[in-house]
Design brief:
The chain is mostly helical. It contains 6 helices and 2 strands. The termini are far apart. The structure holds zinc ion.
Length: about 140
């Protein structure tokens, strides 16, 4: 138990870190950025195929912006700043593509499954999917 206490608290500080505003921002960035791997791994294990959920891109974007702020305003190190200066571009692009794909993917009224774009029948339960035109007429 003493070893855990020593790991968590040493030099009179939590984790031995000198905590202040930018350290909190930097560590929040690290934790957010790292958590995306857990989210992606969980989604992949659940589906039994490699998938990259939307949450992965949101966590990537949030984590990289936090780390970019830390690098820019606190660390002020050119290598660290450059490492996170442009990563938001593919993250936002992937979020846009995810959104467009979801808008084109019909949802099965019978079982709630989101089906592939242009599907006419649900891959999960076989129910006929209403077309976008039909859905628009019903509203
Ligand atoms: Zn269905």
């Amino acid at each position: 138990m003493d070893i855990i206490k020593d790991l968590l608290w040493h030099d009179g500080r939590l984790l031995g870190i000198e905590w202040h505003f930018w350290k909190v921002i930097g560590w929040m960035g690290n934790l957010t950025f790292f958590s995306r791997f857990l989210v992606q791994w969980y989604a992949t294990e659940k589906r039994k195929q490699v998938v990259v959920p939307t949450a992965f891109w949101w966590l990537s974007l949030t984590g990289s912006l936090l780390l970019f702020s830390y690098a820019l305003f606190y660390e002020q190190d050119s290598v660290f700043i450059f490492a996170y200066a442009f990563t938001w571009i593919p993250y936002i692009r992937n979020l846009v593509i995810h959104r467009r794909h979801n808008e084109q993917s019909p949802r099965c009224a019978a079982c709630g499954t989101t089906c592939a774009p242009q599907s006419r029948f649900c891959a999960m339960c076989g129910a006929q999917l209403e077309s976008r035109a039909q859905a628009a007429n019903l509203r």
